[in-house]
Amino acid sequence: MQADTHIDHQAYTPDYLRNVLEGVRTIAVVGASTDPWRPSFGVMSYLGRAGYRLIPVNPTALGQTLQGEPFRARLQEIDEPVDLVNVFRRPEHVPDVVEDAIAIKAPALWLQLGIAHPQAAVRAEAAGLRVVMNRCISIEHSRLLR
Q1: Burial 5-36 (b: 16+ CB within 10 A, else e)
Q2: Per the domain annotation, does 66 fall within a domain?
């Protein structure tokens, strides 16, 4: 997956979103939660039903599992390739997540609805990642790939 240049992060084309999602099999979910009322829980449930392998990442949940997968403290603790990093963290945490996503050579970064960090997006794209900000991955998947 090659990063695109001149992406308008205010208005993604359906083709761009579809290209980011196609070919994804393993998704690391940063900020995953075992709390059913959390948005990350619902999105992970949807993505699991859609056939994705999900790896929860949250240092406060170590020792727990979600959908049969143990929580990891950081992306670097995942010992297999990750196709997409899906982020449920406040914007001020995004730059660190971007550096971790670059370190594991993830090809794509998806910041959930309400989360954007333009400077971190520039950094991620310069490193070759495709970036989506302020969009719900389950809504876009349902709209474009179902």
Answers
A1: eebebeebeeeebebbbeebeebbbbbbbbee
A2: yes
What are the tens digits of pLDDT across the range 51-107?
A: 999 999 999 999 999 999 999 999 999 999 999 999 999 999 999 999 999 999 999
Single-letter amino acid code for the residue at 107:
P
Q: Is residue 39 part of a domain?
A: yes
Residue 85 counted as domain residue: yes
Residue with tokens 């205010």: 10
Is 114 contained in some domain? yes
Provide the number of structural domains found in the chain.
1
Residue tagged 């929860």 (tokens): 56
- Reported pTM: 0.94
Sign of CA dihedral 83, 72, 144, 15: negative
Alpha-carbon span 141 to 21, nearest angstrom: 7
Q: Which domain holds residue 64?
A: 14-145
